Amino acid sequence: MKSLEELKAIRDRVKSSVDIREDNSNKIRVVVGMATCGIAAGARPVLAAFTEEVAKRGLHNVTVTQTGCIGICQYEPVVEIFDADGNKTTYVKMTAEKVAKVVTDHLVNGNVVTEYTIGSINMK
Amino acid sequence: MYRSHVLVCGGTGCSSSNSQQIIDSLEAELKEQGLENEVKVVKTGCFGLCALGPIMIVYPEGCFYSEVKPDDVPEIVSEHLLKGRIVKRLLYKETVAEDSDKVKSLNETQFYAKQHRVALRNCGVINPENIDEYIAQDGYQALGKVLTEMTPQQVIDVISASGLRGRGGAGFPTGKKWSFAAANQADQKYVCCNADEGDPGAFMDRSVLEGDPHVVLEAMAIAGYAIGASQGYIYVRAEYPIAVHRLQIAIKQAREYGLLGKDIFGTGFNFDIDLRLGAGAFVCGEETALMTSIEGHRGEPRPRPPFPAVKGLFQKPTILNNVETYANVPRIILNGAEWFASMGTEKSKGTKVFALGGKIKNTGLVEVPMGTTLREIIEEIGGGSPNGKKFKAAQTGGPSGGCIPAEHMDVPIDYDNLIAIGSMMGSGGLIVMDEDTCMVDIAKFFLEFTVDESCGKCTPCRVGTKRLYEMLDKITRGEGTLEDLDKMEQLCYYIKANSLCGLGQTAPNPVLSTLRYFRDEYVAHVVDKKCPAGVCKHLMQVTILTDKCKGCTLCARTCPVGAIEGSVKVPHVVNQAKCIKCGACIEKCKFGAIVKK
């Protein structure tokens, strides 16, 4: 180690991989439905895509996690995004391809991708 | 990138209850379910709540699973890690709110709420075998700051201003110790770390070494810069294999990164550290004996002065600090002396780690600000006695300390208060005793330890502790006299005043403090020939209650020495001459007809 900068570089690189262990209560939470119905409908690639995309962009204020069935199995894979105040946006019929847009628009810029949300589909 | 981290405790407590097996099956199961790239398994140091081990924490949820068995692993993986359904039955009960399904954060539980972790801040948070994780927690930043921005004198000034005192027990101001060594000119100086933690029931230093070994290396390098030393030694007990192993890994990694070795951070400062393993002699925790042992000689103390700051290891100026003392140093450098001095009491700053043991629910490791009362530690954090029995005393400071009775439970704990009530801080072992503990027996237990561990170099300790032990033994046999009590007290003061080193000077403390607070128990042994707690075998008799005995002969068949006599359907009798008071018959009797009193 020849300089303090080198040390700081290591710190910053590793920091993003361990900050998951800190208090996560005031972060944006991306919750992917991973019950049997979700997995059958393809939730695993969606979850993996979110994890990857969030890491790629270094979004330290976002945690990606999974949950059980929320009861709308026909719309799986379902992804809920909670902001720091607890407001919820529900995305339905997600795919790995749609994830990139949700991350850029919603997580980075704060604009909900309305066309993927549950409100955009005809519930009947 | 992992979306979830599973932290499994790899401290000695949890390792002994199979945490390695849990890690192995966790890794196998994750692979089988195809989750190995999404979920990371991290083996950490001690979380502190050893009573409930093996312990596992799952992030980002922060779920605290306790008493996990290898058989539980498939359920945790398929339910929680795959489907996100928390396995409620394994959650630490305190983290589950009674009225709702919400999982509380660990810091809201009684065990952790009052704790303030400075020395233990990384224990149970990072993987101790990975230097990167330590660096991510601002590791080695303090060393960088010291080398690039501060003069050695400034470092000493910060440590002095923080009010940090030695955590090994005596409480000598660390800054003062460093400034003495810095003031002495020599071609070579040494920085030593005392990791020869030998008090029965103490495991603070072990947990720091196992959970956060780099903090000790960093602090020693800082100390080396402050006093002008280029070589450090860690004297660690060979009985701590996990700590030794992780220290070896840590030293290797630090050398590879150039954080130990030549020209650290390009500043021209050289510092390296080597390990020396202790062979298990308690006296080697004493500073001069420790250094003699590092030199390769028999571990025996020598008279002071000259103090180690003048002539220490290899006759060179040396500082020796305890593991926990070092663990505080990098934080003080980074956060400033005022931050550290804002915690604690007027003369004892910062926090102290205690190893809770004995008759207490939450056996484990706790770190609290100085000035916390014994009641808070034992009743609130420790959860009190496990079977609802009445608290009798707490023993601090191990064989050098004393017993604190219930009447002093509200005294704020710091170095000076503990000495005022006849005990001492010691390294931080805290053994809780309830009404089933005999105080004479406890004093005898500690004396037996010091008799064994006395190195024999000076007579007051070698012969004095032995005589003291014999008198205690006589009392527990019911053969003591009231005169013995006075003689014992006199001998105690004699040993304290005349012994060569700290071992002998403090050895009588368990006797003196129990005599001071529990003289009535001694008197009961001497005058009434009774042991009020029912511990001392020689003062008890096993008897069969004739009205309850059905004459089933089971006890007679159980007795290993054939001391129970009688025939079928006739109440049996214990032959007191033969009885060894083992209690086997009491356990076997179905009618509760046999009593020991």
Characterization of the model:
The complex is a heterodimer of chains A (124) and B (597). A 4-stranded mixed beta sheet of chain A has the order 2-1-3-4. Chain A is built from 4 helices and 4 strands; from the N terminus they run H-E-H-H-E-E-E-H. The N and C termini of chain A lie far apart (64 Å). Chain A is an alpha+beta fold. Chain A has a single domain (25-120), classed as Glutaredoxin. Chain B is of the alpha/beta class and 597 residues long. Chain B has 5 domains: 4-109, Glutaredoxin (3-Layer(aba) Sandwich), CATH 3.40.30; 131-336, NADH-ubiquinone oxidoreductase 51kDa subunit (Rossmann fold), CATH 3.40.50; 351-434, Ubiquitin-like (UB roll) (Roll); 439-526, NADH-ubiquinone oxidoreductase 51kDa subunit, iron-sulphur binding domain (de novo design (two linked rop proteins), Up-down Bundle); 541-596, Alpha-Beta Plaits (2-Layer Sandwich). Chains A and B meet through helix 1, helix 3 and strand 2 of A and strand 1, helix 5 and helix 6 of B.
Fill in the keyword field for this structure.
heterodimer; A: 124 residues; alpha+beta; Glutaredoxin; B: 597 residues; alpha/beta; Rossmann fold; Ubiquitin-like (UB roll); 5 domains; 5-stranded mixed β-sheet; globular
Let me know the largest β-sheet of chain B: 5 strands, mixed
Mean pLDDT of chain A: 87
Radius of gyration of chain A: 16 Å
Oligomer: heterodimer
Query: What's the number of structural domains of chain B?
Result: 5
Distance between the termini of chain A: 64 Å
| Strand arrangement across the biggest beta sheet of chain B | 7-8-6-5-9
